[in-house]
Amino acid sequence: MKHFFLILIAYSFISYNISLPEVREAYKAAANDKTKVEGFFNMLSEITKKDKSTLVAYKGASIALQAKYAKTIKEKKEGFINGVSYIEYAIKTDPNNIEPRFVRLGIQENTPKLLKYKDAIDEDKQFILKQFQYIKSNNLKEHIRDYILQSSIFSSEEKKLIKNQ
Questions:
Q1: How far is it, in rounded angstroms, from Cα 145 to Cα 75?
Q2: Which pLDDT band holds residue 161 (cuts at 50, 70, 90)?
Q3: Cα torsion 133, 139, 143, 145: sign
């Protein structure tokens, strides 16, 4: 019984000791560099749906990105569905948290149309535009701003608005 509690405490320490700025940077790197995907995935390997919704969303993104490079179509599809389930769970459990919506938006924008995962692009985009000014974390604000400024789904007017905030 003692060992069970020690393992439980150690697990809790590991999953909550992850630095969100590091996770954000790893996500950005993995989205742009195939060689960084495995490291991003490993960083979040201990995260479960019981953890903070933001970490759950990033874990989903790590699974979806990893699925992109799977060997077979079946593995790609199953991995993508699994990753998306984490992202959707994070949003369902914490619908007012901007970061899981930001993660979903990034995955949706960069997903092929044949996967049919683009339904919430407008909803997430509008949510982010409305809530951006209320983000307290400078790191998160900068992370989202960088994404918006390079994204093709935001208009030049929207980009200008975000750039000036």
A1: 33
A2: very high
A3: positive
